[in-house]
């Protein structure tokens, strides 16, 4: 588990409906951070159906979901749960905090 937080962007730099990928500074895990209506959520940038980056897919800012471009699996960005086949398992969700004028995340898996 990483105790170090990774800087994503300055608060206000990522607008609602936008997303950005960062890499956890300790574990090297790719983390997809999404702004849903002013709230930030972070998921592992990897589809649980097939090892492919979710950041290549489309973020539906009205439905709070992201769709994998490879096979169409969709996930709820708020908790990572799979919303449709071919994915059946959730994508890991990570904490996000606002501190020192920035948005931060980390891989908190133990």
Tally the structural domains: 1
Q: For this entry, what is the oligomeric state of its chains?
A: single chain
* CATH C-level label: Mainly Beta
From the spread of the alpha carbons, the general shape counts as globular
Share in helix: under 10%
* Total of helices: 0
Question: Under CATH, the topology is which?
Answer: Rieske Iron-sulfur Protein
Main sheet summary:
4 strands, antiparallel
CATH superfamily: Rieske [2Fe-2S] iron-sulphur domain
Structural class: mainly beta
Quantity of strands, as a count: 10
Mean pLDDT: 96
Uncertain residue ranges:
none
Distance between the termini: 5 Å
CATH architecture name? 3-layer Sandwich
SSE topology string: EEEEEEEEEE
Protein name: 3-phenylpropionate/trans-cinnamate dioxygenase ferredoxin subunit
GO molecular function: 2 iron, 2 sulfur cluster binding; dioxygenase activity; metal ion binding
Keywords: 2Fe-2S, Dioxygenase, Iron, Iron-sulfur, Metal-binding, Oxidoreductase
Domain Rieske: 6-105
